[in-house]
Amino acid sequence: MVPIQFPARIHVLLASQAPVGVVIRRGPAKRVATILWDRTRDEFKMGQWLKGRIYERLCDLSPDGKYFLYSAGKAGTSWTGVSHAPFLKAISMYLIGGECWLGGGVWTSETTYLLNSGQRHTIRGSREVVASNQKEPPPVVDCVQDLSRYAPRLIRDGWNVTRVENIGTWQAEQTFEKQISPEWMLRKLAHPGSVGKGCYWEEHQLVHPTSGVSIAYPDWEWADLDGTRLVWATGGKLFAGSVLAEGLANETLLFDFNGMLFTPIEAPY
Fold first, then answer.
1. How many C-beta atoms surround the C-beta of residue 49 within 10 A?
2. ∠142-146-152 over CA atoms, to 5°?
3. pTM
4. N or C: which end of the chain has fewer CB within 10 A?
5. pLDDT number for residue 143
6. 188-221 pLDDT, tens per residue?
7. How many angstroms separate the most distant Cα atoms in the chain?
8. How far is residue 1 from each of residues 4, 29, 81, 91, measured CA to CA in Å?
9. Cross-strand partners of 122
10. What distance in Å separates the CA atoms of residue 175 and residue 159, rounded to the nearest whole number?
């Protein structure tokens, strides 16, 4: 029997003050790669692979796109690392034992960040000017508990919390919205977990508040506004398009991340 081939899983971090991003590409389950995205030219440059797991919704990219703060785990050990984007070789590292959900954090400036769980991080070493004050990001009012470490980044980047619904054990839904054109809003339905879906998954909708029209894109696993264009990931691929008065148009494939194979790569520092 031919094994089922699943598409790569994609999550993207966009720098707020520079036209770059970091793509976190996962697949198979214990292989993850980081890729630099030049958003001006739509060119992609390989970072590094990790034989382990990066918890993408606990990660963040500095406003200038120079530094990558990430939460990772392998073989029962979890840590938070700060690196030169898009690489994974840490210039600052904090150990958090096996409690992977306590890792990561958010940037507060080009050189400072707040760590999730603050003092529960144990510093392993630091060699750069970027620094943490060891405090935790402030709590978000009306937030699904398991999304409480993801929501601060979304809110900082222009998303608004509009609805919270706890459906049951391991099932919840939190709605975020962002205005992306005079007529349309992008709605993000974030789920901390569900049977058959795994932990932390998303679906998206384009919503026209005036007319009440809502167009569902349940297969988009990540989406956001990049300048004046909409960008999204589905099926292991990254796309861009225009949001016109009548809806989504000019859909363009930017990159196909499927088929990438693990390759040992050394960071250039």
1. 18
2. 60
3. 0.91
4. N
5. 61
6. 998 876 544 556 789 999 999 999 999 999 999 9
7. 55
8. 9, 20, 40, 45
9. 95
10. 10
